[in-house]
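Lab notes, practical 5.
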Amino acid sequence: MTVPAYKITEKIVKLLAGKSKKELEDIFSLIPLEPNAEQFISYLKKRNFMTAIVTDSFQFLGENLAKRLGADIVYGNLLEFKNGLITGRVLTKRRCMKIQGCRKFTVCKLWYLNKLKQLFNGVSICIGDSDSDLCGFTGADIAIAYKPKSDALKEKAHKIALSFQEVINFLEESLNF
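Output from the prediction step:
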């Protein structure tokens, strides 16, 4: 836990060097969605929210997920590819906001949330499950820990939810829709 998270990402990407982008996309597409995930995105879009998937995983896999869910925007780690194969290089510019307790992920969710808030104005909702979401939680109007794996995230959350239906119910009450 003392190693900056971006170093771990770099090591993982080096291990994936030579792997096919398509092979990883095919494997990723086999992972089932959480129950009601699509309905949750639909719920937000019907209320004119811009939906974004911001992941400390890889942008190309986030794009795959966004297509499945109908999300609008994706931000994640950009990898270098050559002839459809991962080269082992991460191209993402680190934009860490260096808040207290930050593990220095390559993808700073607070930085991106701030960027989206400048572009779209309105209520910001951040939903996450792990330490990589802590930064985003600090800048969100509403922070929801979804099946959280992190005690620190639970402490920062306005709501801890175990299902997307529970998230929808909470937003109904909180936003007076």
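Observations recorded by the TA: The radius of gyration is 16 Å. The first strand starts at residue 52 and ends at 58.
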